[in-house]
Design goal:
This protein is an alpha+beta fold and 479 residues long. It has helices at 2-29, 31-36, 41-47, 81-88, 99-103, 105-109, 116-125, 140-150, 179-182, 186-198, 221-231, 271-276, 280-290, 292-301, 325-332, 342-353, 389-405, 465-477, and strands at residues 55-57, 60-67, 74-78, 91-92, 96-97, 133-136, 155-160, 167-173, 239-241, 245-247, 254-256, 268-270, 308-309, 313-314, 357-359, 364-368, 374-377, 382-385, 419-427, 432-441, 448-458. Strand 20 and strand 21 form a beta hairpin. The radius of gyration is 27 Å and the shape is globular.
């Protein structure tokens, strides 16, 4: 009998131990995941019952919470929603949060560890805790200009401050209105989401940092140029064969030279002529001479292959592996399987502009609690040294020559020295291309580095990428 009682007692202790462990796990280890579960309606009522902090640009609210009738006390409202949607994202009772609404969600809702004291004070005083405000680094005038320049066409513009890494503008087009998804009209939100997701132009994709990455085209020749100069095998006086068509090794394929400039006028070219006119065959030969490892390492020195948070998650740009010479030749002109975000292309120009030092891109200027005390503020951080100052200065000179004397002359700004590089990348067999410009200004004291890209430009049509970059430069320099 005693033995049976002992077994029952041990079983009861085991059951209580299991229950205690389960409760401990739920309360301490699963708390955040359960709170974030989209099926947790209590969490939804709590989140939308809070006065969530605003997101600001240039001191102006571009996202804020407004009181509302109905099940939830507050609804998110977006000013100039399409201009800022790729940055702010949306805060929806149906679909949760994206963009900064997600990445800075704890600060905006007042739930971050740094706001613990504010929550205690609010609770003791009987007030509803308010979220922190998040100020972005973007310049509202530059952001709005960039969005208007794209004019609804598929593409992206990114502008960086080279010396700090501040993101001055980041737009993706076409865009969408986040108010449609923040509404408390569930049927309307679901209909809007289905329509936006079915749109072949993918308006909810942030082309600046994610989505289907681009072939960078001839903007990648900046990387080739750095690799060539760093190797010691090439100088600005070096001459390279410049055939109109280059037979790719072990294939029946030929790589044609760029036909839009003066490449056909010389059978040999120095680096300045090849870069000014964006000649393909010299850069393909340089890459095959240097080898894929050197080209890949140079690309990685500028940020390729690296995870990056701004704090939005940036899809890593990639340079392919296990290349034969033919594939390497195509990769050297920014095609084959090279894939880049516009942010990455802007980072290359930014590093060259900053004497070879790549600063970590950042979208957040400041976070302030509801009483306006500073919780966190921007601090410029060096990401890595991409190349030496001497090489960066030589590349700068060649980029200036490309604008002064080459095919990038459309980026000229009267009274200023501008550095730049154009690029075109064919998209499969569709007959369309991605069209690029990247560069910085003024070349002798850089204030802004930009990357502009258009998607799916039909053959023979102008993309306006260079002209748009010129207007971005002009706005900063004469603003």
């Amino acid at each position: 009998m005693n033995r049976a009682i002992r077994h029952v007692w041990l079983a009861a202790v085991a059951i209580f131990a299991v229950l205690l462990l389960a409760l401990t796990s739920i309360m301490f280890f699963q708390q955040r995941s359960l709170a974030a579960d989209p099926w947790n309606t209590r969490s939804l009522y709590q989140q939308f019952g809070k006065d969530r902090g605003p997101i600001l640009a240039g001191g102006q609210e571009v996202a804020r919470s407004v009181p509302t009738d109905g099940d939830y006390a507050y609804q998110r409202e977006y000013t100039d929603g399409e201009v800022y949607a790729p940055l702010t994202g949306y805060f929806s009772p149906i679909y949760g949060a994206t963009g900064l609404e997600n990445a800075m969600g704890e600060q905006l809702s007042g739930d971050s560890d740094s706001q613990f004291y504010d929550r205690v004070v609010a609770t003791l005083s009987g007030n509803q805790p308010s979220g922190a405000s998040v100020e972005m680094t973007v310049d509202p005038q530059l952001q709005e200009l960039a969005y208007s320049l794209l004019n609804g066409r598929k593409g992206s513009i990114v502008a960086l401050e080279p010396s700090t890494g501040r993101i001055l503008a980041m737009v993706s087009s076409p865009s969408y209105d986040p108010n449609l998804l923040a509404s408390h009209d569930s049927a309307g939100v679901i209909e809007a989401s289905q329509r936006l997701n079915a749109d072949v132009n993918q308006p909810m994709s942030n082309r600046a940092i994610a989505g289907n990455l681009y072939s960078p085209g001839s903007t990648f020749k900046i990387v080739d140029l750095v690799a060539a100069l760093e190797s010691g095998d090439y100088t600005t006086d070096s001459t390279i064969p410049n055939p109109q068509n280059l037979q790719l090794p072990n294939t029946s394929t030929t790589l044609p030279n760029y036909v839009g400039g003066n490449c056909a006028s010389r059978t040999e070219a120095d680096l300045e002529f090849a870069f000014n006119n964006s000649c393909n065959t010299p850069f393909a030969q340089i890459a095959m001479d240097l080898g894929q490892d050197r080209i890949r390492q140079t690309a990685e020195n500028f940020g390729y292959g690296q995870d990056l948070s701004i704090p939005l998650t940036v899809t890593p740009s990639t340079f392919p592996t296990d290349l034969d010479d033919a594939s390497l030749a195509m990769s050297a002109i920014g095609q084959y399987d090279v894939r880049s975000t516009p942010l990455q292309v802007a980072m290359i120009s930014s590093a060259i502009a900053n004497d070879g030092v790549l600063m970590r891109p950042q979208l957040i200027q400041e976070v302030r609690s509801s009483d306006l005390s500073v919780i966190d503020s921007f601090r410029a951080q060096q990401m890595q040294r991409s190349t030496s100052a001497d090489v960066a200065n030589t590349v700068t000179d060649l980029m200036v020559s490309s604008v002064d004397n080459g095919i990038a002359r459309g980026a000229q700004v009267p009274g200023y020295s501008v550095a730049g590089k154009t690029g075109t990348a064919e998209i499969g067999a569709s007959g369309t291309s991605s069209s690029w410009f990247t560069g910085f200004a003024p070349a002798d004291n850089p204030q802004v580095a930009v990357a502009v890209v258009y998607d799916d430009i039909p053959a023979g049509q102008s993309s306006d990428a260079t002209a748009n970059a010129q207007q971005m430069f002009e706005a900063v320099l004469n603003g």
